[in-house]
Amino acid sequence: MIIGLPKEIKNNENRVALTPGGVAELIKHGHTVYVQAAAGLGSGFTDTEYKNAGASILSAIEEVYAAAEMIVKVKEPISSEYSLIKEDQLLFTYFHFASSEELTRAMMERKAICLAYETVEKTDRTLPLLIPMSEVAGRMAPQEGAKYLEKPMQGRGILLGGVPGVKPANVLVLGGGVVGTQAAKIAAGLGAHVTIMDINLARLRELDDIMPANVDTQMSDAYNIREAIKFADLIIGAVLIPGAKAPHLITRDMLKEMKPGTVLVDVAVDQGGCIETCQPTTHENPTFVIDGVVHYCVANMPGAVPYTSTLALTNATLPYIVQVANKGWKGACLINEDLKKGLNVVKGEVVYKGVAEAWNLNLTDVNEVLAAAL
Asked: Which of 138, 159, 190, 259 is 20 to 30 A distant from 129 in Cα terms?
């Protein structure tokens, strides 16, 4: 198969979809890989390293899209890339369709095959291609929150861990999944007092067993959230419904109940956000203030630590990419149920329930689409 690795062009996105080592593995399996010039520089990988791994370097993004049967990316295509996508071309990347109707309709119009990292799902309900970036974003969230709690950043002027004789900050984490668990661990490690909420009592029991003494667990419901935000200095939104929009757990009217300078970090912003007032921001302009509350809503948080993120992403995605390249998307999805669940849009048809429901579109059975494609 001919695989294309374009340079990411979303604002301040420095990750690249594959390391030179990942490219070498594809070459070993007999595939051809085209890498756009400078695609890996933001992550610390040079064109020479990709050449030495066996890739061919192309100067322009248009050349990469024109040559490739499968495009491997990190982030969803942006509007300037839509016209480059060919009918029947496979795109394997993070799409987060439920947060963008424009993107969904554009991919339907291009009649591409859209395999989304974030909905590839194992039989135990885990999301193997989302986990590494969730781990990065979860660990970054308290780090960013601590920075924006500083007074020059319009925060409350609170040190997350406090000092002897002064209480630490109160951190509220909404969601006990991968992001929430990692966020709670880091916030606790910095010395904050942490409360982590979830709707799953069994999960709360697990967290209660593994978390340090400065982490409390609490059942997530509207009353408990409304009470907790009154005392929180940093609130981290870590809610995920795979492939669907995140629910708004904090609404606009709740901001007035928070202390001025409270910081909100909505890691769920890729899926529409779990804080109603959050809108996607960039690393260039990461925050805005509403009713005295600082909102940090960067949609590609791991892009700020691209070396770590690119290695972690390649570790997870490479076995799936190799399988798709070896078998073709149809063959791979027929033998691998994990990959089949990654199909979101196929040749103009929406085949993932969460995406269809998000934009009130017709849902086509993925098995029918696969049968018709054979």
From this structure: 190
Does 75 belong to an annotated binding site?
Answer: yes
Q: Is 330 annotated as a binding residue?
A: no
Say if CB 280 and CB 297 are below 8 A apart.
Answer: yes
203 is in an annotated binding site: yes
Q: Which helix (H) or strand (E) holds 64?
A: helix 61-67
pTM of the model: 0.90
Residue ranges of domains in the chain, CATH in brackets: 2-119+305-373 (3.40.50.720), 134-299 (3.40.50.720)
If we measure between CA atoms, which residue out of 196, 187, 198 comes closest to residue 162? 187
Kindly list the catalytic residues.
Answer: 96, 270
pLDDT in tens, 84-115: 999 999 999 999 998 899 999 999 999 999 99
| Helix and strand totals (H; E) in the chain | 13, 15
Is 322 annotated to bind a ligand? Reply is no
CA–CA distances in Å: residue 368 to residues 114, 349, 364, 373, 374: 16, 11, 7, 9, 10
